[in-house]
Design brief:
This protein has 555 residues and is an alpha/beta fold. 31% of the residues lie in helices and 17% in strands. A hairpin with a 4-residue loop joins β6 and β7 (143-151). α15 runs parallel beside α17 (524-535). 48% of the residues are buried. The structure holds ligand NA7.
Amino acid sequence: MTTMQPTPKATTQGSIEHYDAVIIGAGVGGLYALHHLRTMGLSVRVYDGAAGVGGTWWWNRYPGARVDGPGSPFYCYTFSEDLMQEWDWAETQPDQPSVLAYLEYVADRLDLRRDIQLETWIRDACYDEAAQRWTVETSAGVRISAQFLVCAVGTLSAPNSPDIPGIQTFAGECYHTGRWPQTPVSFAGKRVGVIGTGSSGVQAVPEIAREAAHLTVFQRTPQYSIPARNRPLDPEVTRQVRENWAAIRAQLNANSVGMPFEMSQRLACEDTPEQRLALYEDLWQKGGFHLLFSSYADLLTNKEANRTLAEFVRGKIREVVRDPKTAEKLMPDYYLGTKRQLLDNGYYETFNRNNVTLVDLREDPIQEITPTGVRTTTGNHSLDMLVLATGFDAITGTLLRLNPKGRDGVSLQEKWRARFDTYLGMMIADFPNLFMIHGPGSPSVLYNMPLGAERESGWIGDCVRYLRERGLGAIEPTPDAEKSWDREVTDLANTTLYPLTDSWYTGANIPGKPRQFCVHLGGPLYFQRLSEVAAKGYEGFVFEQERRTEVVAAF
Ligand code: NA7
């Protein structure tokens, strides 16, 4: 591991600092991109609006927040043997403080902080065609210039605050899970309402119910949740992973979601109903994503296969929730796994508590929020605190809010009015030298995100090197390359059940957002495509010769 290298110098022209690369975001993606580009010898500056590093793990401090996918010791960077050997994970599904502590440790261990400016929002970014550089402007009005702009802005970082009549009038405490306060929040003795039952709501509900005087859960769409079965991480697992790290890393890279799962090759119809039930029961007891990935290969592609697992989980809800009416309200009816699959620690059990009420908004919609609570069609729910677990304008929302201006001043909002066109999920036509990490059209949220960030940053670094070695000043994809990439992403998605469901994967959670499933489902195939494109001299891209050389740092 390289530490304590000298920071390549930024240059100053007039009052503007010039860097080789500006990275927006100091989360999982931005931290690694900084390390990687800096190791290559580039001058790099990272900006983040938060007061600490960690990105989504800095903001999402709501009670119960924890890794809700496959957990430790695999939700981490893989590039450094040292990081792997040094960091001890305590639980199989690390909680938010643990993941944040890990990212802080990485920032310190790699000496990243000296190139990160916190509490600094980037409010604008414009491409200067003559200079072949980006100018970004901070919320304080400071302008910075960089040849490359790396948007590591996060896929779940633009909170969706619901437009419910009267929401601004609520007089009690009101928190969005994605903007949870830094100071402790007490629920003791309070009447709390939670709106939203996605991952955040399902994680927060059991924790809040334990402390609050009363909890009212406002549910719009019931979801399937699988027990996470979080437990202390067996030290023997850690030991084996450390001993076999090279092999495990290769396994992660080869896996379709970047995790060491045994992906089933068997079809659901190859087993009898009794065999299926036995397998589902076994994997339900095991907990986590095994039920989805290690049971049958066609659960996300075949409606009948999906129905068998959905029926099994509905049966579990009926078994756990004692009041049959409440159980019926909790019954999901979409294709399991096509919304973000939830993992919980006692979610359905929480509805057996006598201080918890479930309001089914499909039969009893919210009319308005008043200063004292929530009024639904059937009555008032008096509340001291409102928790908005209403999610995010996912994948594209933060980039669109930043709204960079590319060639001819065209804005990203104009460019993406109808479709989120990208090439490889990495770059956008008319936005030269702008790279994305976890952008639309990449595997992003359906892949191990630290590993994806590493692999995408590696591609960005190689691309920068390619330009520098050839005296090229700018790169951008062709519109044709974007169109064929869109077809590839869409064709892959259409082999699955994902596009059939309203979810944040399809953009359906945000009113007016174009409906588009913009996650590349290829896993290793995606990274193979990245390598192929690079090997063919960046096929699908066009270049410009370097016009100016005086601001280019030593490389
Ligand atoms: P999600 O998964 O988008 O969940 C948001 C929830 O909020 C979901 O149940 C929504 O119902 C509900 N919602 C959204 N707007 C409203 C309004 N206006 N009224 C009532 N209910 C509403 O976000 P999360 O934060 O839970 O999870 C996102 C990721 O963040 C997750 O993967 C974690 O890793 C962290 P809907 O289903 O749209 O009917």
